[in-house]
Structure formats: C-alpha cells, structure tokens
Design goal:
Layout: E1 2-6, H1 13-21, H2 29-32, E2 38-43, H3 47-56, E3 60-62, E4 65-70, H4 85-92, E5 97-103, H5 119-146, H6 153-170, H7 182-188, E6 199-204, H8 207-212, H9 217-226, E7 231-234, H10 236-244, H11 247-256, H12 263-274, E8 277-282, E9 287-294, H13 299-302
Parallel strand pairs: 1-4, 1-5, 3-9, 5-6, 6-7
Antiparallel strand pairs: 2-4, 8-9
Amino acid sequence: MKVGLVGLPTVGKTTFFNLLTNAKVETSAFQSGKISTNFSLAKVPDERVDFLAGVFKPKKVTYAQIEVIDVPGLVSGASEGKGSGNQFLCNIRQVDCLVHIVRAFSDENVLHPEGSINPIRDIENIGMELLLADLQLVETRIERINTGKKITKEQIAEREVLQKLRESLENEIGLADVKLYAEEKKVMEHLDFLTAKPVIIVVNVDDKQLVEGYENRNEILDYCKNKNLPVFEVSAKAEVEISELDEQDRKEFMKELNIKESGIDLLAKAIYERLSLISFLTAGEDEVKAWTIKKGTNAKTAA
C-alpha cells in the first residue's frame, strides 16, 4: 500500500517524510530549487510486536510497512502543469491514501507561499487543484471515446459514468462524495482519480501551539469534522527533537509538551487504519513478524 504526502511548499512535508521513514532527505530542497519526489518505507508501530519481541527475543523483528511518497510542493495551477504539477500528478495518482499537510506555525525564515497562515484556505486550494486535475482527466477520457472510430458497448457505459462524474466535479464535489453503483465503481477504478482517495489532514504546529493551541483552531477542527476528514495536530519540529533524544530525555521532553505518544507514531497508525489494513502476527525464536492484510480478510485467505 502507498501513501502520498501532499501540500503547498514549505509546510513541512519532507520533514514528515523523514520522520515517518527515517530518511535523511534535505528539507530545504524547495528553497534551493532542487525539487524531486522521494520514496521510502515507513514502519507501522505495533505494541503487540514489541511485546512478543520481548517474550521470544527473536533474531529478527519485522513490523508492517507502508510505502511513503513525498511529492514536490504544489503551487496554484498545478492541475495545468505549473510548477512540478505534472510530476506530482503522475506519482500521486498511484497512491492509495493522501496525507495533506498544512501549516499553522509562523516562521519569518520560512515564508508561506500564499503570504499568510490559513490552514482552511490551504486545504481548499489543494483540494481544488486535485478536483481540477480529475475534471481534466474526465474530459480527456470522454473526448477520446467520442472521437474514436468505433465506440464499443463498454465505452458507452464508461462515458455515461464519466458524464456523471463530470457533473459532480463541475459542481466542486469530489468523487469520494459521489454515490456510485458497484458497476459504476468498476468502470472508474483504473483511472485512479485523486478526489476519490481517502485523505488525512495533518496540521503542522510549533511547540507552543501544541501546548496552548493556535489561532482559529476550533474552526479548523470543525471544518475537518464537517468534511469527514481525520485530522492530527503534530509538531514536526518537536518530533525531530524527540527522535534525537535518548529514552530518558525523550520521556521528560514529551511530558513537558503533554505528548503521551509520538505524533508520528499516531500518524503511521492512522494511515494504516485509513487504508483499512490490519496485521496478524507470527512469533518464534527466529522472527516476530507483522503481516499486513485488508480488514475483513478471513483466516484461510490470510494464511
């Protein structure tokens, strides 16, 4: 399973990528003009694996993993290919879930591309770029069917579904909110629509905001609730510090910030949950391992 980190430039996407995957990607890449897509694997924390590893003391411990893709920051017009839009869309269409990172923190050394801090605006702007990209894909597909030499029954059925999707997109309704019959869903599966993917919102805050809150916090949380978007408030800066401390100092620092569990660990678990994944475990002296399966998979299939 794959998850894509999306958002505007300078929101902290690559920092979250590094934290999730233990990578060491340069985080000032956007400002230096070195824009590329990053790929790596993230471990899904699991207390059951930790417990069994303590019991069996195996030679090898294997956690469940998710592939994480960190794409270049979006700019207005990305759906039209502006900025690194084409590269972004090519990579992000392949993922199963989107983690949209917005920033609530202010930093005079890291300017916001829109000139001000407004997480709801940023969520909507990125959402609109994804929607426009899907609309462009639908229109291209319909045009291709209409101009074909011979239109098959399958293409006629596909065009009917695409016209329904186009109407929703033109009314600024993402495809995740469009009710489709099973046959209609089957038609659109291979097209990898962006607005049909599950989304998680991450609000990147600073240490002080993590403890005391921040401007318009309630409005942001209410907005996400009304949109049925899971939302997490995480301080990437604090998480970097936590990752660099020894165990005792880590506990004290987390206590000061009233952090009971690492925000990165919580996010990794939330991604796993959002993808409707669960793990079953095998344990022995050679290896303790978490195996990834879809929710609802029966024991026979899992085996």
